[in-house]
Amino acid sequence: MNALFLSSIPRFASLMTGYFFGCFLTGVLVVWLKTKKSVSEFGTGNPGTANVAEVFGLKAGLIVLAGDLLKTILACLLCLFLFGGKHLPDPYPALGRISCLWAGFGAVLGHNWPFWRKFSGGKGVAVTCMAIFLFSPLWGVLADLAGMLVVMATGFLPLGAVMIPLLFFIFCTLFLTREAAVLALLLTVIMFSRHYKGLIRIIRGTEKRTAQLIKPGKH
Fold this sequence. Notes:
Number of strands: 0
């Protein structure tokens, strides 16, 4: 069998495993348990941490954040176990840690475009942050911290969100593999596509700052 085909199978399996984990939207569950209504009926309708925290308060937002981080951890570690090392049968080549990034990329796709919700999901910030950290703890945490500092300095979530995968892409290009750099570039494009409206609002001066988003929940 063709070596390229053999190597693509565990990559595709990691991608799809991550996708199905990513399709679990913690925000949808949290809002339904609180209100028995769809998250689409509240705020921006987004099932992510920011919208849930803005509408229902910080505690609810943190629960959503924890759930989204956990599903990413489970997806990445499972794929690292199954496809990263000795558990792959011959003749499939072991992927090593890149299986973790493929799973993380899939989790972002599932979180942002879940099939069961007519491909309408979140923005994938928490999932992206955890995925790049699990793949490369050093460069991942540096990118995550830099994005956090941008948010703290400017108060704008979209700006910090876009900076995280962009910086990780630069780190991958300089210090890691070409395959990792390609996946990081795709994560950057996705993050930009989910936040470009917010970036435009920043330019126009109409975007809410972080302090305005976290309010005591009314529901």
